[in-house]
Write the structure tokens for this entry.
Amino acid sequence: MSRNAPRPLADEVILERLARELPAWRFEDNALQRRYRTENWKSTLMVANTIAHLAEVAWHHPELSLSYASVGVQLNSHDAGGVTERDFELARKIEQVVLWRPDQEGGALTGTPDDDRFRYLRHD
């Protein structure tokens, strides 16, 4: 662990916070992990690029795994040797942006049509 690295959170704290803040995420292999189900390869690339943009802006880079219809995200702070507040902050931002549904906000943006031809992310 480097001198200026944040301190890793205790496993019990991580599990409690995931249950409360990020229930779709899990703690495994000393990292926060989440898999997003997509509709196809194009959708997978859209989600992966969105996550990549957020990670680059935050200067905190997750491990990503891509398949035809899913994107896996794994977050931990290598310099701290575990999961830190940085990982929770980036996980919350990823969740907020990737799962954004403008049609549920009641604003001018209507979101994608309710038609399977236009769906790119599975919300189940």
Summary: The two ends are 38 Å apart (CA to CA).
